Amino acid sequence: MQIDINCDLGEGVNIDDCARDAVLMGFISRCNIACGGHAGDDTTMALTVENALKQQIAIGAHPGYPDRDNFGRKSLTLPESVLLQSIAKQIESLYDITARANADLSHVKLHGALYNDAEGDPKLAHAIVALFHKRFPQLTVLGLANAAMEKAARDLGQPFLREGFMDRRYLNDHQLAPRSQAGAVIDDFVLCRQQTMCLIKGETFSSIEGKPLAFTVDSICLHSDNPQALHIASRLQQALHEADIRICA
């Protein structure tokens, strides 16, 4: 068996932050690089691409609401055309950097509040995937399993990877529990490992409200801003190895 492990990176502000990200890259197979909306600039993007090439992991764009003050975690009311223009500009910024580094941009994953808003709003999801289909048809969309972006990608014929989360609780409807809800973020390794194995094998695990859930995913996300991220990543790699599960994009 094999599983893709993805991580949102390039969200820091300096070389030291990029160096910490580079350590995490040894335990994942795919990185989603902040590209100027909620975080990231030309320097962090270039360093993150360089480190990803060294580690031979897949490189993707991680656009979010253009709101650095709130780290893209607050929903913004923007005209659709303005939002789509911002998303396209962010992806193009990373495209320019990957081109200069002779690197391939393989996928795109929305960030934070934009991710949640699109997954809960079929109209918004369709508009964003339509943008990808028109401007970036070669990019695979990485999005929440069983939600609006997956349906929009299928309707429009855009490649899609079903994403699950090892360190976040789910609501009964398969949406992610909001970070403001107690217990929404999992920082205990045993619980992360348990949820990861269930997502890989399609076995039952509990929502934050106690409902049994069971589905499979193509990629599992580890959040780099989890205080226990490196600890979880290193121990998870060992646990997967012991279970004969290979980490592979």
From TrEMBL:
List, alphabetically, the SUPFAM superfamilies matched: Glycoside hydrolase/deacetylase
Does the record's keyword annotation contain Hydrolase?
A: yes
Q: Which terms does the UniProt entry file under GO BP?
A: carbohydrate metabolic process
Q: Name one GO molecular function term.
A: 5-oxoprolinase (ATP-hydrolyzing) activity
**Key words of the record:** Hydrolase
* Transmembrane parts of this sequence: none
Identify the Pfam families for this entry: LamB_YcsF
Highest taxon of the lineage = Bacteria
Indicate whether Hydrolase appears among the record's keywords: yes
Classification via CDD domains: LamB_YcsF_like_1 (cd10801)
State the EC number(s): 3.5.2.9
Q: Which Gene3D superfamilies match?
A: Glycoside hydrolase/deacetylase
Name used for this protein in its record: 5-oxoprolinase subunit PxpA
